[in-house]
Amino acid sequence: MAISIANKQAVCEKYRSYLEIIYAFGNKVILMKQLYQYAELMGVARSFSKFYSSIMELVNAEVLRKESFYAFEKKTQLQMLVMRKYGIRFLEGKPDSYSVASVKKALGNERIMVSIFKNQYILNKVVPRLQKESKAIKPETIIELLDRDQSSFLYNKNQGLSFLLRLRNEATFQKYLDETSVEQDIEKMQGIKQRIEEGLKKGSKTSDGKGRGRLRLSEVSSIDRVENVYERNRDLSKEEKIDNYTLDTMLAFNAYIAQIRLEKGHIKITALIFDIHNRSNIYKIATHIACMYHMFTRYFRDKIELIVGIVSIDEFASSHLKMQSESAAIDFVSKEKKGTRQSSLLKSWMIDEAMQYQIKVHFVDYDITNQFLDGIKHANLIRR
Question: Which domain of life does this protein belong to (predicted)?
Fold first, then answer.
């Protein structure tokens, strides 16, 4: 039996806060376990059974889809919630379901893993700050705090341009920004966006509106295309890679700005790198840290301080990366030890000792394995 539009609309209105959380903080997907934590904090769920009944209303009204959560190709005991087209249309204010893209069943689990990491950050770091300020916990207050922090957590892949445009217009940083460099990156990113849009239009014409031609811009990663070029052309110099590093490159690596703040006339930037697949190594991490630092020094006139948190799935993975970072770098010719691998790698990316003094790297974890991946049951699948 078909669900009436009126019924769908009524259910969406009733549970708008749930939909806003899934849409904004999970990019349209979330673990039910994490959504329940929000429900408890907002005071809208007296018990899990009441909360579950609410979720089933949304599922039965075809607003959400409930799926089993697979971690590293193994089914866990947890459920994930995925927004269906009507729920997306409701929040975006679109006239019909043809105006929005559906969230397809993922071949991998990157989208839900990013959602898990983002929501753990919000629940563990943002919510306590709101509580300390005696503010109500609801989607709008969380978004307000993230915006106040100049955080990029609400931005998904290919949305770096939107973030940079907002940063450019932020009054607090106007006199500290290098307008010329910011404008150059904006033009560069707009050019990439335009080329992709033109490519999609051509694809739509050649495919008669079928297949790849109907993809929306948000579903095609410009940085994926850039990284494909890197794969094909290994001869690009480090200088060129540094110059082409943008906020979209950060987002594609699941790296986010947590906060940009002004402290005693100096710019302090906190960034987080989510190692969602447990595959990163110190070379990749140091490369991105170096490129981030160069990018931020382009954007800001004065010296900056960059604090980077490398967030792993568990303590074991975090310790492994930290050990790589702190291990001795061996000179290939003399065989002598020359500082740490992290320091040596940063130096190879034009980050000298004075610059390295302005960079602090911390290795942390969100205990993802135990909380969401059925702990030790699947630990052997995610170890290196």
Answer: Bacteria
